[in-house]
Amino acid sequence: MTIPQEVIIKEVGPRDGLQNESVIISTEKKIAWIEKLTNAGVKYVEVSSFVSPKWIPALADADDVFRYLKRKEGVTYAGLVPNEKGLDRALRANVDEIGIFVSASDTHNRKNVNKSIDETLSILKDVVKTAKREGKSVRGYLSTVFGCPYEGHISIGQVERISNILLEMGVDELSLGDTIGVANPVQVKQVIRQLKTTIPTGKLALHFHNTRGLAAANIVAGLEQNIQVFDGANGGLGGCPYAQGATGNVATEDVQYLMESLGVNTGLSLKGLVQAAKYIAPHVGLELPSYQHRLAQKEDDGA
Amino acid sequence: MTIPQEVIIKEVGPRDGLQNESVIISTEKKIAWIEKLTNAGVKYVEVSSFVSPKWIPALADADDVFRYLKRKEGVTYAGLVPNEKGLDRALRANVDEIGIFVSASDTHNRKNVNKSIDETLSILKDVVKTAKREGKSVRGYLSTVFGCPYEGHISIGQVERISNILLEMGVDELSLGDTIGVANPVQVKQVIRQLKTTIPTGKLALHFHNTRGLAAANIVAGLEQNIQVFDGANGGLGGCPYAQGATGNVATEDVQYLMESLGVNTGLSLKGLVQAAKYIAPHVGLELPSYQHRLAQKEDDGA
């Protein structure tokens, strides 16, 4: 098994982890959480989203989080934007990197932003142009890459087409998302192998949800394809708010444990990540689906 | 990725899944559960354990479960035994297959059965001899293969030595157990690759616990080494009784989902397995760690 010796784990918890939560975490607590994450060695945090507060009330304080956050040197604090209006806010907040998003499924994209993929790409083209002009790097989130709740199967050709359009716009890195947690390791290898025919591996990141327990297996498949950037959400936040313990994003600390067990260096502290998860857990008010957080709870209980 | 087209999933829930539970499930309910499992296509069930009821009160009714169980043709109903006394009970219960167990860690073995590995092997030699004379096949469970809570690392050489002793006794299949859920995919491949130098692959099965979320990744590693028998416990039962949602054995239905997603045939019905998990869940009284069971619950809740 040939895998990279070193990878980067990007933290998407404060944005992707919280956006579906019904609870509102205070700005102060979000900032304290982010500080715990960067204290654990995290070098990339997706801090918030500059979408309309009407869409995502949980992230309505994006501007304030950036305003009051004490930035650490060497850490990239990123913000997601849906359009030029969001970009304006993100630029005023002086985010380090702009995140944009589009779905690989036309139906999912329409349900999400009420636009076709091509309409969204046309809007994003201007967003990326402005962002780059302002000296910002851009990360593109491509969702439902491995399956869509409405369309089911998504063709690799479709993923490749959109990926190349995004990269031609100037997007620096693509995060390929398994939005509903249906990817499997054979498929992950197939998709990456195909994308690598036109895209350098270094432009690709993987973003898994652990809905069906396959996130670790999918990450290993990505590693075997030499992918070196993986997203995680501290605590495994980002699950469906309707069911306790339902899992969303793969937990950053579970990815860290996996990497440590495989001998892959990340620069992160497992203990620090678990402490960050312990900090946010009571504020979210759900039992977190993170394995490492659960194990730590058991230890605390003396079990 | 070359993997087998067909595998066997062996159900250990009624024994390994229940043995650590503090609740006592009635004999009648155990039998109804086992019937649901075989209705889902399960061809191998580890029904119970003929250890002293003092050790494992949850399985004290092993004799009665076998007595009242209506056996289905083509299904192997197995029983675990610790020694000749247990074997006598198992033979009187007319089990289809005898399970024996020993740890790859001397400390763990002593904590478990108060004997050294070699003392245990000496007892098991007679057990296997009698079982074979009575025309029974024998499955050997080797625990802590991938790590021990007391000794930590377990050498592959030690695993290989014990495996070969068991096979020389006449054991038909070895189930290599990751008792505390610390295995990782690189290690799984290493261990199997080494064992295959002296043991036919067809003699080996893998038994994972999902304590740290790596069970699916470890199973994929096993598949890539051409292993074709995997253990699972319906519902993911077998976790630590001290923490809600703490995961023990990998859930049979989660293994089934993995196999289906990889296009590997098992002969099992995912829906049937989930129904079996739904049946046993309220009787166990814990939130089951099974992903497929949780997804089914969410669907039932209309989420």
TrEMBL record, chains A, B:
CDD domains: DRE_TIM_HMGL. One of its GO terms (molecular function) is hydroxymethylglutaryl-CoA lyase activity. Transmembrane segments: none annotated. Keywords: Lyase, Metal-binding. Residues 7-274 form the Pyruvate carboxyltransferase domain. SUPFAM superfamilies: Aldolase. InterPro entries: Aldolase_TIM (IPR013785), HMGL (IPR043594), PYR_CT (IPR000891). Pfam families: HMGL-like. It comes from the Bacteria. One of its GO terms (biological process) is ketone body biosynthetic process. Belongs to the HMG-CoA lyase family. PANTHER family: HYDROXYMETHYLGLUTARYL-COA LYASE. NCBIfam families: PRK05692.1. This is Hydroxymethylglutaryl-CoA lyase. It comes from Alkalicoccus daliensis.
